[in-house]
Specification:
single chain, mainly alpha, transmembrane, EC 7.1.1.-
Amino acid sequence: MTMPDLSSFGHDPWWLMLAKCLAIFVFLVLTVLVAILAERKILGRMQMRFGPNRVGPFGLLQSLADGVKLALKEGLIPAGVDKPIYLMAPVIAVIPAIMAFAVIPMGGLVSVFGHTTALQLTDLPVAVLYVLAVTSVGVYGIVLAGWASGSTYPLLGGLRSSAQVVSYEIAMALSFVAVFLYAGTMSTSGIVAAQHGTWFVFLLLPSFLVYVTSMVGETNRAPFDLPEAEGELVGGFHTEYSSLKFAMFMLAEYINMTTVSALATTMFFGGWQAPFPFSMIEGANSGWWPLLWFVAKVWAFLFLFMWLRATLPRLRYDQFMALGWKLLIPASLAWIVIVAITRTLRGPDAPVWVAVVVSVGAAAAGALVLMTRRSLRRHAIPTFTLPADPGAVSVYPIPPIPGTTRRNEPREHSDV
């Protein structure tokens, strides 16, 4: 496979690059404002109640009113905090989430005031690794926020959040390996170009399922929002934050949702390419139309986040960590081996359906093994070994059943 052509990047005038940076920032902020309002509206309808409907027509200004309220609130700083780190933690959480969008392709080549440029700030031969590296820096904001607060519960919430994010980043990175094998590149624009005929969600469905689960876990969203559970009585690592500092953590959460949704669109759903049947229209993948397809796909994943929050109950922390370490990571490693063997056996001239059949068969075999193992474990008969001498002490002591006594031991009588 030929290497992607990156010659169209890095030649824009300074004002055009500045305009692209500003456009990405405005797009992310507006997406956050609309997503907060849409989430409250969608959750209200799913739970058979009204969402925001007071501020502005149909409640459309509710997100703006919430932002103004947070900006005007008094910014309290507790006495026991490490002030420099306490103030820097929200910034460290927000900036990496925005920087990750620098290599996300939002469209093809367009003309802006006579200059031909791509709807992408820049691209790298290892662009996906850049996204993983930048987003992993956001964990420092979580850890430092909990540690600098000078309180026990934010520290515990920060440690649990960081453990959760780091654990699911491993499964997320492993889900990309199969995409790299099929696309032959780590460049985001090259990966989009490799999906011109068939989207990778059809060829690499197990990788997509692992990624979808990992992106929900990494963004601390329901049903994996364990550090912010109501049973903990506190809000997690940002318990001691208020005003704009608290708003920056919320901004980072929703921008991270947008970033992982855009990455899912790029890696598995053809990026900015038009979906069927719009792809049959001439010119659907040229000009500014790809920007519409890209935004629509991103919002489909954002709706998935909201749907999961309204539908699924929250998991226990041990169940959540076991899902990542004992299921997603081993399944991803096994799937990488299957994809590598499939790519080797398929060859350059074999049809696509060969890879699809092998992939589906391997996924079905893995699911059958897991189901069989679970069924055997469920129907296993537990065995208990009692000591031969009733008076002897067992290595594994067994408490007596209530209402009974051991042999040769008189029952105690009570006058009550």
